[in-house]
Amino acid sequence: MSRHTARVSRIGLVVIGLILLLGAGAVLARALAASTSVLGSSSAPLLTHSQVQYPTQHSWVWPVTAAVCAVIALLALWWMAAQTSTKTVRRLPLEPDHVHGRTTLPADAVTGALTDELESHPTIRGADAALRGSSAKPGLRLAVTAENRADPAALRRWIETEAIPNMRTALEVETIPTVMRLQFSRAFDRHLS
Amino acid sequence: MSETAGQHGETLVLPPRGEPPRPARAAAWSQPGPRRKARQVFRPRRTIPGVLVAAVLAVAGILGCIWAASAALSHALWKVPHSDLAGPLQSSVHWADTGTLAVASAVAFVGFLLILIALLPGRTRAIPMASGDSSVVIGVPRRSLRRSLSWLVADVPGIDKATVRTGRHSVRVRATTRLRDTSGLREKVHSVVAERLVALDPLWPMQIKVRLRRKKG
Predict the structure, then answer these.
(1) Which CATH number belongs to the domain containing residue B151 in this structure?
(2) Closest approach of chain B CAs to the CA of A93, in angstroms?
């Protein structure tokens, strides 16, 4: 769900931001001689000769650096995947009876029926539906494009009282958390296309 | 049915003929629960900065890994002068140099920016609308609302062009007209926008500001 990916993005950004801020803050503190006793002299060179020679004298430095870089790259890739995952539900369990086999329903069938119903409405030009989250507790994402001249209140009421309840009946659930984006397009676009 | 009209200030909206009257939904304005929920749903996810930072990190990690591995193998695929790289840094650059300060300040600024991006809630991407069902969250994307309102305003007789901007709690309309006599035109534009907003029923009241400009010719 989007709230989950939002949390993943925001927490990651805070962590990276803090690392950058603290690291750069420490460099600035040393450069400005804020605490010479702890951080060292500000007039010293950035890298001493012994520091530059360290990797050539210790063979473990480069393999460890490579391993650390690999871990950073893997974590970054995992973070990227976690942020972009949509968690689309593909199959829905209808009867959670594991003894006598399971009945599943393709999510496409449910969302397809819903979009067909929505698009049959005279003022709706396009509809898109997807089930997100876990298959046990899916959430519905709806994007509806309506004609600009249509009465949005009547349209919304029709969706709330007809289309979504019909889908709930099909899914045999009491409620389904739904996020609907209502968009508008110009009325004459349809005659042009 | 008194509930069909006069709920939002002076704007009067009549339901289309043959349809049942609108339920009194404006009561949702006083409920913080749906507002908070809708704000959370439509708050920016910060996916773009997050993915960008992740991509930079991944590239840096992969390059660093290749560099360190080639240095460790010493007869590497990719010849990196790792011992020379730090050469210019070791004697000439000092902690108190302007360059060091500038780079550290820039990095600190980027870090601060990332924290701000992460912690600021941001403007909602869509304007949440009242919903008759607590499990349904409805929003109109700002861009769509802007276009929708500008089309509506442009259809007002006498209006040439209209641009709409949406603020946090406001809608600002700039319309141009060629008419000499603009009396009542501003009010007309205002009422068209107000009527649409009432029909959409946003979860918080939206202030409408209309600026009319007269174009010569």
Answers:
(1) 3.30.70.1350
(2) 21
